[in-house]
Write the structure tokens for this entry.
Amino acid sequence: MSVQSRSFRLSTSRLGGPTDERSLLLEKNPTLASQRYYGTNEGTSSSRLEAREILIIRVICAGAIFLANLGFGIMPLLLPVEIRAKGYSLSWIGGLFLIQGVFRFVFELLQPRLIPTIGTKRVFVVSMAGLGAAYFAFGFLQFTCSGTTFGIIGCFIRAAEAIFYAGLMNSGNTMICLATPDKAVSLLGMTDGLVQVGFAIGPLIAGALYSVSGFTLAFVVPGLLLIFTAIGAQFGLPKESNALGIPCFEDIKRLLADLHFIAGVVLILTISTAIGFLEAPMEIYFSKFNLGVMLEGVILFSGWMAGALTSPFTGWMLSKCKIEWVLLTAGPFLVAIFAFVFGILPDIVGPNLPLSLTFFFLLIMTTSAAFMGGVGILLRQAESCGLANDIVTYTFISAVWLSLLYLGYCQ
């Protein structure tokens, strides 16, 4: 799906200052943004990039997003284990997750201001390196001798993680969309799938590394991988060139007043809240079947993977036909029905694992599909309101759906 400009006024209102290689848009030659994105003979953004360069952008951004969420997937498993093993106060568990959640939400909302001013590639590379360094540093909290030291230093590191994570996710999504705007919704489905894959694989890798050498190695490995990927991104991503400046949001104000856009926002927040509520009791629910920790982990991993496959497929469907309005109406209804049946099933028919697993996977897949329907609505309405294929549009759209996702997780 491509977001097209319908007015030259929109293009000129967003031009910043002189051409600068810190750059906003992935473009090999320094031309005005209006020549690139606003229906001139120069073509769209993808016409300026070779197929090899687009592939490099996708691979590097996808790899970074996966590694970032791999680290986040490790944290919920190992942080409580380490705190209990050292006899520290369990209140630090909630405190460390609260700090991370608040900073991630707030700094995601700031990305539409920060990225157009600093530059997409610069934010992406710095955020990736910073997040890797934060993961690396967090692993060495194993060597602290008191709960206060662990908690205070951990809070600073978790805040840094959240700040860099927000920058990486937003800039990575924005670069992917700018490189191929006609496939934006499909690619956002792919990145949402990578988030879920990272969360799914994170605990498995954490368990393996923890059994080998304890707490430290489980965070040092993803941290180093992110730092090396940041170095590769600095030299591997195409050079960027365009005007930098403080972004103008006049045309975005029209989007915020659009009722269909608001409906998409409500859908994403509703589904994100449902995800946040569903995650907590899953382990308790499946413990009733006396499967053991390993089989419970396999079930939860399979659920994440089902969602990870559903998101890109739904994104692809959204790019081919306008099904987002079907997902808007049917999505929350189906999620509510499946969640209700899934919850009361053991009380009605007794422990029935095949039936519970059926509704579990239906719940996960409809949740992922409905969430991507909300993202599709945001992009479709941005197109309808005449927003441009530019940095402001994609950083804003990414900030909206990511911040709503984080807010839902915190419920």
